[in-house]
Amino acid sequence: MHITQLNRECLLHLFSFLDKNSRKNLAETCHKLLEVFQDPLLWSLLNFHSPVELKKDNFLLGPALKYLSICWYSERVKVCNIEDWMKNSLQKDFCKRHENTVSDFLLDVCNRCPNLLSLTLSGCGHVTDDCILQVLKNCPNLRSLKLENCVRITDHTLEAVTLHGGSLRTLHVDFCRNVTQAGLERVRQKCPSVMLRADRSANMIPDSKPEKKLMLEKASRKLVQL
């Protein structure tokens, strides 16, 4: 039996085991398989592991999307989690391209995926407070927001949660070093039903110039005393 002789339910089941590239390659073989590829039921969950993946045409965004995860840890994107004042011009240009890619993608999610239930962003140093604000406003059913090591996330995101995260039940801001204890406490007070986790986020050693300079001066004085 040829694969195209299978009914639509069987084909959708088979496609569900394939990664995005394999789905796209198979869809290009015939019109029937292309229709399966374009079926919204196939795209309720999406995972990305590189900024480059966000620009490909091997997936579909639509109202069926419920679970979205963008996580990367490669050496190429580690520089994006460094504070801007520590970057050289080449690194800043590199990060700006990533930032535009991520913000444009999340804007598409806001416009096309109103039924999103879960968003996980890990290692995404390009994600801004404004991106998260737009997601919260445009995805009113969002129940889980997990942010890990997103250096640009601040208390503005926490405030947006209190204002627009009415459906939210889980909020993780692990290793988001620019959120504060005061911001976390406001979330606990205003959103008691939200399960909040912030392992090693608030009060982490900041990379801002004045505090970094002060820390280095103290270390130098200790060395002199020794």
From TrEMBL:
SMART domains named among the record's database cross-references: LRR_CC
Assigned keywords, A-Z: Ubl conjugation pathway
A single cellular component GO annotation: cytoplasm
CDD domains on file: F-box_FBXL22
InterPro entries with a match to the protein in the record: F-box-like_dom_sf, F-box_LRR-repeat, Leu-rich_rpt_Cys-con_subtyp, LRR_dom_sf
Name of the featured protein: FXL22 protein
Organism in which the protein naturally occurs: Chaetorhynchus papuensis (pygmy drongo)
Gene: Fbxl22
